[in-house]
Specification:
Blueprint lengths: L2 E12 L2 E12 L4 E4 L6 H8 L7 E6 L2 E2 L5 H5 L2 E5 H4 L8 H10 L10 H13 L15 H13 L5 E5 L7 H15 L6 E6 L11 E6 L2 E7 H4 L2 H8 L3 E6 L2 E6 L2
Parallel strand pairs: 3-8, 3-9, 6-7, 7-8
Antiparallel strand pairs: 1-2, 1-4, 4-5, 9-10, 11-12
């Protein structure tokens, strides 16, 4: 297998505080990972390092075979798709669904280049792939939160990334919109030529079987890394959360219950 991501013994300190401590993580092609951690665990800091926006105090970060510090980070970043709820607020509400998706090719807010027939065809196919054909011609501002998230995923795919990071994509969604988005992500993961997925969350129930591996991050340290079915168990999660919990498998969903 080929390494998509390799983080080795990474530390990051800020204002005398150690935010990440000796973090090592290896993602190989053909694997899809869930990154699980509570608020303040260091997930966002780690993501910013993967995307080349932060530099480790110590350790190395290698993405798609390129070690940061030895290559032009902006070139590596072109091969990484990053979907975050914070991006929703920066996009223009009057843009059409297709324009939002096409802007991903240029990593721009808005479109400043002439749209080619090939770009439009690609955008339409991605919108349809994510079950959003009904949004064609709709202005982005009139879409629901869940629809916007799907359009952001389509936008990220427009540049054909090799790595796609989904940063808490279900944040703020109701139960139906969340399930619809998870179904679309599962379909995306099944594509033979699709990108490697990293799904970031603090909700175990969002980690569907398509994510074969999991990284558990707690207080800036790796609690566990490996097969999801070995980590998302009563014993492991009780130790991870430092609370007694039980995991209930209901269909493809794992529900976590606090034991009183």
């Amino acid at each position: 297998m080929t390494d998509v991501l390799q983080v080795e013994n990474v530390f990051w300190r800020r204002e005398g505080k150690e935010v990440l401590s000796d973090v090592s993580w290896r993602v190989q092609k053909g694997e899809h990972w869930a990154l699980l951690g509570l608020n303040g665990s260091g997930k966002t800091t780690l993501l910013n390092m993967v995307n080349g926006y932060l530099w480790p105090t110590a350790g190395t970060v290698q993405v798609l075979g390129q070690e940061y510090g030895a290559v032009k980070v902006s070139e590596v970043r072109k091969q990484i798709g990053w979907v975050s709820s914070s991006l929703q607020e920066r996009l223009y509400g009057e843009s059409s669904a297709e324009e939002i998706v096409i802007s991903g090719k240029y990593a721009s807010i808005g479109l400043y280049d002439e749209v080619t027939a090939a770009d439009m065809e690609r955008a339409v196919s991605l919108v349809e792939l994510l079950g959003c054909a009904h949004l064609r011609g709709r202005s982005y501002g009139t879409c629901s939160q869940g629809e916007k998230q799907k359009l952001l995923i389509a936008r990220a795919l427009m540049a054909d990334p090799q790595l796609l990071v989904l940063d808490e994509p279900c944040s703020g969604l109701d139960i139906f919109s969340r399930q619809s988005l998870l179904d679309s992500i599962q379909q995306l993961a099944s594509l033979p030529d699709g990108p490697t997925l990293i799904y970031v969350t603090h909700h175990v129930e969002e980690i569907t079987p398509v994510f074969s591996h999991a990284l558990l991050l707690r207080r800036g340290e790796v609690f566990g890394s490996g097969r999801a079915d070995e980590l998302l168990t009563d014993g492991q999660l009780s130790a991870f959360f430092e609370r007694s919990v039980q995991v209930e498998q209901r269909g493809s969903i794992k529900l976590v219950h606090i034991v009183c």
